[in-house]
Amino acid sequence: MDAVSLGPLVLPLDRLLVLLVAGSLMLSAWLLQRRAPRLNDWVTWSLIAAIVGGRLLHVGMNAGLYLDAPWQALYLWRDGYSLWGAVLGLLAVTTWYLSRRQLALRWVAAAATPALLLAVVGVITLQMIRPQGIELEGQALQRLDSEPVLLTELQGEAKTGVFLWATWCGVCRQMMPDVIEAARREPDSRWLLVNLGESPRTVHDYRQQHEQHGPLPDNLEWLLDPRSRLLDDWQALGVPTTVLFDADGRQQDRFMGQRALSRLLAD
């Protein structure tokens, strides 16, 4: 299990944990505000600093990915954050508040302890319930001309990325350019774009939209899963779901939702 379904909304568990930890910190500050009025300000600026610091360090470490479109570094709603950058931002704000004696350490500790405990328990829980690693198997798929093909026949020499998607999925459409760019940057890899439950004509028309911007990489394969069997076989709750395999067909990484190009390129 790597996500939860809330009606039509499917939320990855790692992002849900971040929201819960931030919510816990804000709740603690609200409950303690009568004894420490500046606590709410500390929490607000700490969260802002964590977001900015996490983004800046990620962009700095992956600067080459933003050279063609540097303004995308400002897209804070997209994936692409460094945990250590967020920690440094939070520590910087905390140090400023403590050094100027605007806030006592005991109140910072009182507000932060529940959030830290929740984070530790959450990380351990995510490790325990993470879906078991899968291997590339011989599931039957179709090419756009309806020719049957086995998944194992399309395995790449160095790495294979499988992207489960649909044209009606807005997040899938937002992420597709990054998937295509990942294939272009790693020519030894193989990227399989497996459409779930749609007709060959629908997928063909969508592919043509991307071809208008230039030729697509040769290591990109557009495939069909008419009955969406991979969702069940891989215990995926929805789309987009991305699974990365090594040269031997063993799972390297798996995630749901939109993720940064750097995550797609990770070895």
UniProtKB/TrEMBL annotation:
Residues 130-267 form the Thioredoxin domain. InterPro entries: AhpC/TSA, Lgt, Thioredoxin-like_sf, Thioredoxin_domain, Thioredoxin_ResA/DsbE_sf. It comes from the Bacteria. The chain crosses the membrane at residues 16-33, 42-61, 81-98, 105-129. Keywords: Membrane, Transmembrane, Transmembrane helix. It holds the Pfam family AhpC-TSA. Gene3D superfamilies: Glutaredoxin. PANTHER family: PROTEIN DIPZ, THIOL:DISULFIDE INTERCHANGE PROTEIN DSBE. This is TlpA disulfide reductase family protein. It comes from Natronospira bacteriovora. The lineage of its organism: Bacteria, Pseudomonadati, Pseudomonadota, Gammaproteobacteria, Natronospirales.
